[in-house]
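hiii so um. not sure if this is the right channel but i have a protein structure encoded as tokens and i wanna go backwards to a sequence. like what aa goes where. can anyone help
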């Protein structure tokens, strides 16, 4: 019953010797655990002598020992009334009150006892312990100082006073107290342990280790000392020694969680993530309601992309401590990573209702809106984050990227300048260089941008400074450069590669062993992209992955997200293996290399930053790309697979890779179905009588040089109107209109924009248009295939490089050249004739319908690609 003195029955003798004998018998039964029999005897005594203090006290202790502290209180109170000169009664009554949770009465009783017995060390100690347990530090210090004045050789009092000082960060005073306790009794292992903790707090790791070792010498299997010795050893830099300590601690006390957690944290820094998770799982088995362990395990599962288990841990933590904003925030992050964007948004809003000043939540909420392409909402939340912390680099960086997405380069660069005013940050400087305009006001502005871009790349690379992780510290693609329509693309792409090679040298990596033992005899090919879903890349590659010969090829698909739709599900179902990568450059390249591929196939390099950064590594003997129609500029990409019909005569000049030109497109493209109905123009706010010229590409593909042709078409066809896509954000439309006001003048009023549509509505627009015209320098690929599937012709002008020749290549494949212009003047002529000569257009439509089957669901395309891949592998080996 707390800390109490040895009971001597002779202190409480009554005149009746039979009562005394009975009491002694009851006490013997009590001590031996026969509570029921002892209780009967105590009751018998009190029935004869109801005010017998010793019997009242002992019966009260029995009630306490049986877990009935409330029943003990009146009995011990009665004992005090009968004999107020027994300090033990006050001690046990105070203990009983504390057991019921009545802190105030417990303290009051201890103090009442001390008023009568001011030098009673047991009352002093229990009172000080009570103050410590309830964090009444000043009161505890006063009582302990009083106790030490009474008994300067009281080691426990010195040690407890040391604890009071240590908790309150008075480390030097704590050390003095513990040292005094050790002077009094140097054989107390707990005193040495406590002194070690004080030295650990002071970051004197060697001295802390010495104390822990002394404690262990005094008590061989002292779990806490061995565990803390591991902490001190780890902090002094001896990782091996720390691991040994933690393992020993676990072997001594496998039901204690601390050592599991400490060992896990050491191994996490060593890269042993699976073992770390196993240790945390063991820790939570031992201590299932530990908030810190649940939260940390939830974080580890999030990092491992095990979202279901992460949510489970964090939900358990939320049940233990409901509505804790940090826990809810982590749940939101898991949902965001798992692609459950709307649920994540709801959670983040809930967090902000609880804690409106939580900066990280505004940023994550902004990121969620950015993924949903609700860029204005994203910007609003980044701005709110900055209201609470104007120096938040994460908020400024994300705000910069969001502004750039809207085409507001000035605001984007201003955000990065704010970071650079706080510190000279290489990552921010590189981002500022990489964040190029999306829509250009003029053709000369493109040249100016490229010249400035090259100059800044050179200047940044010349600083000699480096970054550790390009994806984490930069994380931007150079997609927009490909739309500039300049023939020095190869040179610029190589300069971009050389820039990254110099400032991020860790990008250059070769797998230690590129050869594998071929068990199945199949070629193991990995397809790597972020866009294996309802996206241009997904639609182009679904048929390849589904139809590639599985008796010859073992297919591994690498993705960065879990986005699921019909296209993604079809790709997953047809691959031998699907891997969701961690979006961690080093971990992902090591994993890919560990798959021992023969061929690593990039469906795009340049559309997603991590795909680009991974391409710097040699992860397979053969690495090739196809798709995004510009050279990578990266030496570790061996081959660029293209379509001979689309390429110019001097095609190799435009590639750093070896160019492989297929006779076919190399795609197995599923023919889109015609929509059931063609909408009325009025539904889109378009005049019925006008000649509708449709260029249904993203606004950033409308090159400034295209404006002259558009103006000429509208000038020459008074009934003509131009239909463009508004794009993701209305700001893109605004930027285009501003440019058109300068280049088209009043004709701008005859330009109509249409918002984003679903697939069927989008395809229906081709059938509604009088003439579909291609974008220049970066022509339609997927869009042109959709037109040809509907039997709709596209007027195109093939520019010098592949990006502007895709539609032209499809026409050559079909052997239809009627709609291919030799220059921009003919492009205008063909467009106007298409819109106004219905019989001519109908004849072309019929020809496309009769010949377009070569472009769709053509298994010979896949066979040619297979043969090409086989030759690459044979050449490599």
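sure thing!! here u go:
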């Amino acid at each position: 019953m707390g800390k109490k003195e040895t009971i001597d029955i002779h202190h409480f003798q009554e005149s009746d010797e039979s009562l005394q004998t009975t009491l002694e018998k009851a006490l013997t039964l009590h001590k031996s655990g026969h509570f029921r029999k002892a209780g009967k005897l105590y009751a018998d005594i009190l029935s004869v002598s109801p005010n017998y203090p010793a019997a009242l006290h002992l019966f009260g202790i029995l009630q306490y020992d049986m877990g009935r502290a409330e029943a003990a209180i009146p009995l011990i109170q009665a004992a005090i009334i009968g004999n107020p000169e027994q300090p033990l009664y006050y001690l046990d009554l105070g203990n009983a009150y504390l057991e019921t949770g009545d802190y105030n009465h417990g303290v009051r009783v201890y103090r009442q006892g001390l008023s009568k017995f001011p030098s009673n060390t047991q009352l002093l100690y229990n009172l000080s312990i009570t103050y410590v347990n309830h964090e009444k530090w000043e009161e505890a210090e006063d009582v302990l100082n009083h106790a030490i004045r009474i008994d300067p050789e009281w080691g426990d009092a010195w040690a407890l006073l040391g604890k009071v000082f240590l908790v309150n960060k008075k480390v030097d005073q704590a050390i003095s107290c513990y040292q005094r306790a050790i002077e009094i009794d140097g054989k107390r292992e707990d005193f040495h342990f406590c002194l070690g903790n004080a030295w650990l707090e002071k970051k004197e790791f060697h001295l802390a280790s010495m104390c822990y070792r002394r404690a262990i010498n005094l008590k061989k299997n002292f779990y806490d000392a061995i565990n803390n010795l591991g902490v001190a050893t780890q902090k002094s830099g001896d990782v091996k020694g720390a691991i040994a300590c933690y393992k020993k601690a676990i072997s001594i006390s496998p039901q204690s969680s601390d050592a599991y957690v400490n060992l896990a944290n050491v191994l996490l820094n060593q890269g042993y993530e699976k073992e770390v998770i196993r240790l945390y799982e063991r820790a939570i088995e031992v201590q299932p309601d530990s908030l810190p362990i649940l939260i940390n395990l939830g974080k580890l599962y999030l990092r491992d992309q095990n979202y279901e288990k992460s949510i489970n841990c964090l939900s358990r933590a939320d049940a233990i401590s409901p509505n804790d904003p940090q826990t809810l925030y982590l749940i939101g992050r898991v949902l965001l990573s798992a692609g459950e964007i709307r649920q994540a948004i709801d959670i983040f809003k809930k967090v902000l209702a609880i804690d409106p000043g939580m900066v990280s939540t505004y940023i994550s909420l902004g990121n969620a809106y950015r993924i949903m392409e609700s860029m204005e909402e994203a910007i609003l939340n980044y701005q709110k984050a900055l209201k609470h912390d104007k120096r938040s680099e994460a908020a400024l960086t994300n705000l910069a990227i969001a502004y750039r997405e809207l085409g507001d380069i000035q605001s984007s660069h201003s955000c990065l300048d704010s970071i650079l005013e706080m510190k000279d940050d290489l990552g921010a400087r590189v981002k500022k260089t990489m964040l190029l305009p999306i829509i250009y006001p003029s053709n000369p502005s493109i040249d100016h941008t490229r010249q400035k871009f090259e100059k800044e790349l050179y200047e940044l690379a010349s600083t000699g400074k480096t970054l550790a992780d390009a994806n984490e510290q930069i994380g931007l693609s150079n997609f927009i450069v490909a739309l500039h329509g300049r023939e020095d693309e190869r040179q610029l792409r190589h300069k971009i590669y050389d820039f990254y090679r110099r400032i991020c040298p860790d990008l250059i990596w070769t797998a230690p062993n590129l050869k594998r033992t071929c068990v199945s005899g199949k070629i193991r090919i990995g397809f790597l992209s972020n866009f294996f879903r309802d996206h241009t890349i997904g639609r182009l590659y679904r048929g390849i992955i589904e139809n590639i010969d599985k008796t010859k090829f073992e297919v591994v698909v690498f993705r960065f997200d879990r986005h699921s739709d019909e296209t993604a599900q079809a790709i997953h179902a047809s691959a031998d293996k699907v891997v969701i990568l961690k979006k961690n450059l080093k971990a992902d390249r090591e994993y890919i290399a560990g798959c021992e591929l023969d061929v690593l196939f990039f469906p795009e390099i340049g559309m997603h930053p991590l795909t680009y950064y991974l391409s710097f590594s040699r992860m397979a003997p053969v690495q090739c790309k196809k798709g995004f129609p510009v050279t990578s500029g990266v030496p570790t990409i061996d081959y660029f697979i293209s379509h001979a019909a689309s390429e110019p005569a001097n095609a190799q000049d435009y590639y750093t890779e070896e160019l492989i030109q297929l006779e076919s497109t190399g795609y197995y493209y599923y023919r889109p179905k015609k929509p059931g109905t063609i909408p009325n123009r009025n539904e889109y706010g378009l005049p019925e009588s006008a000649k509708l010229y449709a260029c249904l590409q993203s606004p950033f593909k409308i090159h400034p040089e295209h404006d002259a042709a558009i103006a000429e078409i509208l000038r020459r066809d008074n009934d003509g109107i131009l239909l463009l896509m508004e794009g993701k954000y209305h700001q893109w439309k605004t930027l285009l209109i501003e440019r058109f006001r300068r280049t088209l003048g009043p004709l701008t009023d005859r330009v109509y924009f249409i918002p984003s549509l679903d697939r069927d509505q989008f395809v229906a627009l081709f059938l509604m248009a009088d003439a579909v015209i291609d974008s220049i320098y970066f022509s339609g690929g997927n869009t042109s295939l959709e037109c040809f599937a509907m039997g709709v012709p596209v007027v195109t002008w093939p520019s010098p490089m592949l990006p502007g020749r895709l539609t032209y290549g499809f026409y050559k494949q079909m052997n239809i050249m009627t709609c291919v212009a030799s220059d921009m003047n003919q492009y205008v002529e063909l467009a106007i004739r298409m819109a106004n000569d219905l019989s001519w257009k109908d004849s072309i439509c019929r020809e496309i319908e009769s010949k377009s089957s070569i472009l769709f669901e053509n298994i010979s395309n896949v066979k040619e690609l297979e043969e090409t891949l086989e030759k690459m592998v044979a050449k490599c080996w």
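oh and Residues 523-662 form a domain with the Rossmann fold fold (CATH 3.40.50.11380).
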